[in-house]
Amino acid sequence: FALPHSRECFFILYCMSYLDCLPLQIRRVLACVDDVREVRIRNGCAVSVNVGGRKFWLSDSGLTSNVKRAFIFDGQCDDIVNSACQGSVYAYESMLAQGFFTLDDGTRFGVCGRYVAGSGVFASFTSLCLRVPHDVGCLSQEVVSSIATSRAIGFVGAPGTGKTTCLRNLARALAATCNVVVCDERAELSAFCTGSGCDILVGADKPYAFSVAARTLAADWIVCDELATDDVSAVNGAIDSGVKVAFSAHGRTVEDF
Question: Are 225 and 163 in contact (CB under 8 A)?
Answer without folding.
Answer: yes
